[in-house]
Automatic annotation (TrEMBL):
It comes from the Bacteria. GO terms for biological process: gluconeogenesis; glycolytic process. Pathway: Carbohydrate degradation; glycolysis; D-glyceraldehyde 3-phosphate and glycerone phosphate from D-glucose: step 2/4. It is an enzyme of class 5 (isomerase). Its EC number is 5.3.1.9. GO terms for molecular function: glucose-6-phosphate isomerase activity. GO terms for cellular component: cytoplasm. It catalyses: alpha-D-glucose 6-phosphate = beta-D-fructose 6-phosphate. Pfam families: GPI. Residues 50-199 form the Glucose-6-phosphate isomerase prokaryote domain. It comes from [Clostridium] innocuum 2959. This is glucose-6-phosphate isomerase.
Length: 258
């Protein structure tokens, strides 16, 4: 991989399986199919890879498992296939993080790209007025944070290469797809044109303002640029408590998109 994630894990392109080192725990991957997300695509009848992405939730070094679970955190890894879904790049359908019983709140997610490049798409609301929408372009080693309560989707920004990333999230996670599915997808569809990604508004929304931006640093969350977010947890296990306890960063969430 282009960026070392801080522990011994690899993604195999040929079968979209994850390989763990001897000191690493993790489950067998769950694989998401094109059929499962058709209703949220710009062209629901399109062709594309049968398996869109492979995901393992709860991975890490064996010696860190207790520290991770005590903080109600979970680390996941995902690989997306290369290719297209009609005019769109391979992507997820989009969802909101449901209210977690442990904190009585929707929670954030902290992405880190390991291989390839992504657009992490997010919109303020799942209603007819989607509010501010952001497509954050991130390359290997870069981090993107999605705030609590925002609709978000992951998009493979390079149709010629798989995308692999890791993410910190809350352990008692849940996904809410209702509003996205009611609008037949996210507010802006990514479209591949001459190898580049452009954006077409989803007519099911009455209002949405898109900002296409590059990944950036997050000093307000005490994150260190260029250092694996897993390594940052090892060095300071409380650094990511804002993921499982979003109330700790209430001011930062209020100012997040300003």
């Amino acid at each position: 991989m282009e960026f070392y994630p801080g522990f011994d894990i690899e993604s195999r392109e040929k079968d979209m399986e994850f390989v763990y080192g001897p000191d690493v725990f993790g489950p067998k991957p769950e694989k998401r199919t094109l059929e499962a997300i058709r209703s949220s695509l710009q062209d629901p009848s399109c062709t594309g890879p049968e398996i869109l992405y492979s995901i393992v939730m709860d991975v890490g070094r064996k010696q860190d498992h207790t520290a991770i679970t005590e903080r109600n955190l979970l680390y996941g890894a995902v690989t997306y296939a290369k290719g297209t879904l009609g005019k769109e790049p391979v992507r997820s359908q989009g969802h909101i993080h449901a209210i977690s019983p442990s904190c009585q709140s929707s929670t954030c997610e902290v992405y880190e790209i390991w291989d390839g490049e992504a657009f992490i798409y997010m919109q303020e609301y799942g209603k007819d007025d989607a509010g501010n929408c952001y497509a954050v372009h991130a390359k290997a080693g870069e981090v993107v944070i999605v705030p609590p309560g925002w609709v978000h989707a992951t998009i493979n920004a390079n149709v010629e290469k798989p995308l692999t990333f890791g993410a910190w999230c809350v352990r008692d996670f849940g996904f809410d797809y209702e509003e996205v599915r009611a609008h037949h997808g996210i507010a802006y569809f990514p479209v591949v044109e001459a190898g580049n990604i452009t954006w077409e508004i989803n007519p099911a929304y009455k209002n949405a303002k898109l900002h296409v931006i590059a990944a950036h640093d997050y000093p307000q969350f005490d994150l260190e640029p260029g250092k694996p977010i897993y390594t940052q947890f090892i060095e300071d296990p409380d650094r990511f408590l804002f993921v499982s306890r979003p109330q700790l960063k209430e001011k930062e969430w209020e100012e997040f998109h300003k």
